[in-house]
Structures are given as structure tokens and as C-alpha cells.
Write a structure and sequence with these properties.
The chain is α+β, with helices and mostly antiparallel strands and about 150 residues long. It has four helices and five strands; from the N terminus they run E-H-H-E-E-E-H-E-H. Helix 1 crosses helix 2. The protein is globular, with a radius of gyration of 16 Å.
Length: about 150
């Protein structure tokens, strides 16, 4: 499946809302009002600085397939900028088709092009199905640092 990933703009508010609603249902098993989500997404996207985009959207054909949301922080522990990746979500109908990989690749390439030294990923402790990247986040976690193993550093 061909996947196109781009930074979301105000024109993508409805697509962003579609993914946010599915994400809310997936994690909370509670529906999110699509109209309210669209209005909120439009406001968020309108307030964003083009220098620091927050939402990458993946499309498979004309359908929105997933999102990555994050923020660029100044400075990181090593005095370099870092990307904090808050959410990575692929819609149920698009899972196991390379959408997550395309989103991570897009974020990693953005970091390389902007001189961002590292990507930090974390999850809440209640999310038992999520991958942990740092030792101590769950007892059985294996420590991994994106700065040594992600596509941005290869």
C-alpha cells in the first residue's frame, strides 16, 4: 500500500478529527463528538507555527490512515533540540500495512533535516499494550535510545 505522510494543515482538520475520534474510542471505549473534534483540530492547526508542526498525518489513497503527534523541545539533555513523540496511532483498517513505519520514517527524516538530535517516546503506565523505550517504565522494559538506533541516526 502506498502511504503519503505530510504535516497537517487547517485543511486537514476533519481528517485529523477522524483519527482522534478513532483513537479515543480505541483507548477509552467512549465516543468523541466528531464535530467538536473537527472544530478543536481546526483551532489547534490554526494556532500552530509552521516552524514547529505538531501533527503528521498518513494517507493511504484518499483515506486518512494514522497520525503522529509531537513537539520539539529546547534544549534536550545534551543541549540539542529533541522531538518528543506523544502519539503514534494507526487506524484499525490500516494496521499492518506500513503506515506506522511511514509515520516514524517521516518524523525521523524531519529530525535529520532540522538538526534535531533525538526522538523521545514514552507511554502512560496504564497502556499495557504500548512499547516502552526506557528502562524503569515497566519492570520488564528493555532500555532503548532512539538516538542510537532510529533511522535518523543510521
Amino acid at each position: 500500500m502506498a502511504v503519503d505522510v505530510r504535516w497537517a494543515t487547517t485543511e486537514d482538520a476533519e481528517a485529523l478529527a477522524t483519527v482522534l475520534c478513532e483513537m479515543a474510542a480505541h483507548y477509552r471505549q467512549a465516543p468523541l463528538d466528531h464535530g467538536r473534534a473537527t472544530a478543536t483540530a481546526r483551532q489547534w492547526l490554526g494556532d500552530e507555527s509552521p516552524a514547529y508542526p505538531h501533527f503528521a498525518l498518513a494517507f493511504a489513497g484518499s483515506e486518512v490512515a494514522g497520525l503522529a503527534s509531537g513537539a520539539i523541545a529546547h534544549p534536550g539533555i545534551d543541549l540539542e533540540r529533541l522531538m518528543f513523540l506523544k502519539d503514534l496511532f494507526v487506524r484499525g483498517s490500516a494496521r499492518n500495512k506500513g503506515v506506522g513505519r511511514a509515520l516514524i520514517g517521516f518524523i525521523a527524516n524531519h529530525c535529520v533535516s532540522k538538526g534535531i538530535g533525538r526522538i523521545d517516546l514514552t507511554t502512560e503506565d496504564w497502556n499495557e499494550g504500548a512499547q516502552r523505550f526506557y528502562a524503569g517504565s515497566v519492570p520488564s522494559a528493555t532500555a532503548k535510545r532512539c538516538s542510537s538506533g532510529c533511522p535518523a541516526r543510521r
